[in-house]
Amino acid sequence: MNKKPLIGILESIHQDGINLLKKFSNVYLDTGKSKKKIFENVKHYDVIFIKSNIQINKEFIESAKNLKIVARAGTGTDNVDLDLLEKRKIKFFSTPGLNSKSVAELTIAFILILIKKLPDLDKAVSKGDYRRHLFLSKDLSELKVGLVGIGNVGIEVAKRLKPFGCKLYGYDKFSKKKQQFNKLKGTFVSSFEKLL
What we know:
Layout: E1 6-9, H1 15-22, E2 26-29, H2 35-42, E3 47-50, H3 58-63, E4 69-72, H4 82-87, E5 91-94, H5 100-115, H6 118-126, E6 144-148, H7 152-161, E7 167-171, H8 178-183, E8 186-188, H9 192-195
Parallel strand pairs: 1-2, 1-3, 3-4, 4-5, 6-7, 7-8
């Protein structure tokens, strides 16, 4: 009889994901625990779930004797030593693109907050100052917007900015989405300095 795999959730994920994992494994929640406690527990786990805070490095892997899979709920690998995982024959999975739309929408919200001077406007109105002429803002249609990184998120930001009519410029040495960006009327530039 096969024993259920032991899964350690080291950083918070949605409860629906935890419930799904519990259907075929024994799940242990180590979110919010000290590094020392995580290192004590990780030696038992077959699989771990992380996000962006836990560092999967030599020190971590030496504590994780049974580890077979590292799953990152999100994108990016800056906190994971992929070469070390490969040497130890530990598989790595991530979820590229899964939250790209949400991040793009947040980016658009920040752009609007800045160009419409909402923090300053909020302070003034809360003090009873309604002099709108002090807070003249720009329209997105007047702007040239530079995007650093034309990956999943960059493309989603560009898709949302295009209908506003702003001019889009992008810089990314490694982008595989240049054609997609060009279809959105975006222009690639050759260096970060040129973008600025």
